[in-house]
Amino acid sequence: MIVRARRGERIEENITSITLVEYPPIRNYEGFRGRIYFLSIRDQLRASSLQEKLRVLGKPMGASDLLIAAVCLNKDEELVTLDEDFLVIKEIEPSFRVIIER
Fold this sequence. Notes:
Number of strands: 4
Largest sheet: 2 strands, parallel
CATH class: Alpha Beta
Strand content: 5-15%
Number of domains: 1
CATH topology: Rossmann fold
């Protein structure tokens, strides 16, 4: 999303508050048409559960990525990202939907 905003492209997808913290200009970006999902306790617990499973596989992830994945799973949203690291989530949560932009 950040790259697309910098290019002046229209953004229809929703984002999490993590993206808002990482890139505050998105809040006032005229091309942003999505919603901002703020983290809930449920999202944080889901992220913790994901991390537990990933640690068993020896593939732990950073907190912000886990929280983004948890929000997507809890809201039944598809994640659109440049980061291929998110593909590991599918190993522990087959319902996780992710599109890697190129």
